[in-house]
Amino acid sequence: MENEKVKCLIIGSGPAGYTAAIYAARANLNPVLYTGMMFGGQLTTTTDVENFPGYPEGVTGTVLMEDIRTQAEKFGADIRFGTVSDVDFSERPFKITIDGDKIVIAEAVIIATGAEAKYLPLPSVHQFRGSGVSACATCDGFFYRGKDVAVVGGGDTACEEATYLAGLCRKVYLIVRKNHLRASKIMQHKVVATQNIDVLYEHNTKELYGSPLGLEGAKLLYKMGTPEEKEVDIKIDGFFLAIGHHPNTDVFKKYIQTDENGYITTFGKSTRTNVPGVFAAGDVMDPNYRQGIVAAASGCKAAIDLERFLVETE
Hints:
With 314 residues, the chain is α/β, with parallel strands linked by helices. The protein folds into two domains: 2-116 and 245-313, FAD/NAD(P)-binding domain (3-Layer(bba) Sandwich); 119-241, FAD/NAD(P)-binding domain. The protein is built from seven helices and 19 strands. It has helices at residues 15-26, 61-74, 123-127, 137-140, 156-166, 185-193, 292-313; strands at residues 2-11, 32-34, 48-49, 59-60, 78-80, 84-88, 94-98, 102-111, 115-117, 133-134, 148-152, 171-176, 197-201, 203-211, 214-222, 230-235, 238-241, 245-247, 278-280. The strands form five sheets. Strands 1, 2, 5, 6, 7, 8 and 19 form a seven-stranded mixed beta sheet that branches. Strands 10-17-11-12-13 form a five-stranded parallel beta sheet, with helices on one face. It has a three-stranded antiparallel beta sheet with strand order 14-15-16. Helix 1 (15-26) runs parallel beside helix 7 (292-313). The model has no long low-confidence stretch (mean pLDDT 93).
């Protein structure tokens, strides 16, 4: 199996990974970055991005990530397509296996593999991704000002998304599978107190429908699987999923400490993990904000933390 030695290895190609590559390259660390299966990360699945600084007219997620990648390559970052299939963080230098057939020996590592939103397993949900279906109200809610939308979920995140959208949209349907909300009491009170939120208890999404121009509505099943089951049709322009995210940490869990939901634990205000020399940035360690600009900032922090670590240990 082919081996290669590098000083700085970055795993993941979203805003965190690419920004870490910019900073590491400018620090003459000659970073090597493996992109994973999705060049540019989750932002490339969105359409217009209007809340990333520096783009007053907005920018598509794909163009934004291509710009950041180009900037990293300008300073000498070596960006490659490939997926980490195994790691050995038991001792430094670390051994990282790429696609099962190459081993990279790295003095230090930044994990920036992100987190994937959980989507309902319906073909129509995937059909309208980017043209009506979103997993981030903060990112995309602005595009639905004055329109009717739906949020799926019954926890704190769903309630937060619904109340946020209620300040922008004409009407918000909160689709809840159970006959109650799982959210904290304070979030439940906020939802109930918001006049333009309509909570649909005991409803499941059957399918979405629309045209090539975008989403037009959703068919729901009330009390699915019971004698009282009936189909309900709602007209909506936006459909927001708030049923959780899955951080891409499975390959690291043998060595890297995570919380109960799989997000990497970092210590203090740093990006340090429990393994000295391994750092984490972006959504893989951030279950709270999940914004491109926050991920980019943590990528900056991770590169600075890594550089200082190498100086201290050389």
